[in-house]
């Protein structure tokens, strides 16, 4: 698949543009959620008052993690390349927008993104819903056929599939657990940089 003609690039954040730092089993433990469940969906299933408290608790946990965020190797170089080619870039994360902005600042990636193009769980239905991608593409007056979703987890790939974009799976281990949902698999962001080089 040729990615060099793709005009819009939408990235997951944690584990994709930043080094994975979330211990989800520990977060589930802190929140009192069974470890095998997806956190946001598990919180949504709680009674309203309890769910509200857990969301506040989750936000604080994520803000603490965001403070120490580091850019994924190759992220700055890739974003510089995309900017030099006048590509549009956005973030779609299951974090809140506030956490996303703090993560990007801490990791040195904030200058590459317009704040309006950073979408979190409080901006749209969380991944794997295509709502976030659809919102960005509408804002950019762009089509899925000219767009890419890049992420490290199955929800990212499903979101791209659901929206009709190309999907790139970053897996630093090279395992690629969901080949049926990805168009391209990479182990380092430099591979994308090379793929779009003129």
Structure description:
This protein is of the alpha/beta class and 198 residues long. It folds into 2 domains: 8-19 and 70-195, 3-Layer(aba) Sandwich (Rossmann fold), CATH 3.40.50; 24-66, 434 Repressor (Amino-terminal Domain). 41% of the residues lie in helices and 12% in strands. It has helices at residues 24-31, 39-44, 48-66, 75-84, 97-107, 131-140, 154-163, 189-195, and strands at 8-11, 88-92, 118-119, 147-151, 166-170, 184-186. A 6-stranded parallel beta sheet has the order 3-2-1-4-5-6, with helices on both faces. Helix 5 links the parallel strand 2 and strand 3. The model has no long low-confidence stretch (mean pLDDT 95).
Keywords, separated by commas or semicolons:
2 domains, six-stranded parallel β-sheet, 198 residues, alpha/beta, 434 Repressor (Amino-terminal Domain), Rossmann fold
Short note summarizing the structure:
The chain folds into two domains: 8-19 and 70-195, 3-Layer(aba) Sandwich (Rossmann fold), CATH 3.40.50.1000; 24-66, 434 Repressor (Amino-terminal Domain), CATH 1.10.260. Helix content is 41%, strand content 12%.
Structural class estimated from helices and strands: alpha/beta
- Multimeric status of the protein: single chain
Mean pLDDT metric = 95
Strand content: 5-15%
Query: What is the architecture of the largest domain at the second tier of CATH?
Result: 3-Layer(aba) Sandwich
Main beta-sheet annotation: 6 strands, parallel
* Fold-level CATH name of the largest domain: Rossmann fold
Apparent shape:
globular
Q: Can you count the beta strands?
A: 6
Distance between the termini: 15 Å
The CATH superfamily of the largest domain is known as HAD superfamily/HAD-like
Indicate the low-confidence ranges by residue numbers: none
Number of domains: 2
By CATH reckoning, the class of the largest domain would read Alpha Beta
Tally of DSSP helical segments: 8
Report helical residue fraction: 40-55%
SSE arrangement, N to C:
EHHHHEHEHEHEEH
Q: Major sheet: order of its strands?
A: 3-2-1-4-5-6
**Rg, Å, rounded:** 16 Å
């Amino acid at each position: 698949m040729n990615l060099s003609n793709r005009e819009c690039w939408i990235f997951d954040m944690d584990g994709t543009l930043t080094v994975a730092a979330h211990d989800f089993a520990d977060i589930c433990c802190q929140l009192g959620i069974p470890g095998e469940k997806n956190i946001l969906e598990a919180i949504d299933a709680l009674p309203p008052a309890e769910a509200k408290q857990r969301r506040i608790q989750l936000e604080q946990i994520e803000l603490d993690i965001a403070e120490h965020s580091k850019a994924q190797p190759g992220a700055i170089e890739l974003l510089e390349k995309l900017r030099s080619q006048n590509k549009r870039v956005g973030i779609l994360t299951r974090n809140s927008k506030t956490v996303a902005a703090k993560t990007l600042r801490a990791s040195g990636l904030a200058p590459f993104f317009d704040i309006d193009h950073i979408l979190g769980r409080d901006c749209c239905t969380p991944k794997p819903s295509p709502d976030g991608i659809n919102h960005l593409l509408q804002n950019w007056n762009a089509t899925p056929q000219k767009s890419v979703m890049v992420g490290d987890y199955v929800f990212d790939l499903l979101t791209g599939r659901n929206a009709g974009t190309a999907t790139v799976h970053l897996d630093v281990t090279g395992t690629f657990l969901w080949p049926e949902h990805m168009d391209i698999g990479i182990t380092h962001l430099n591979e994308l940089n090379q793929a779009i080089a003129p």
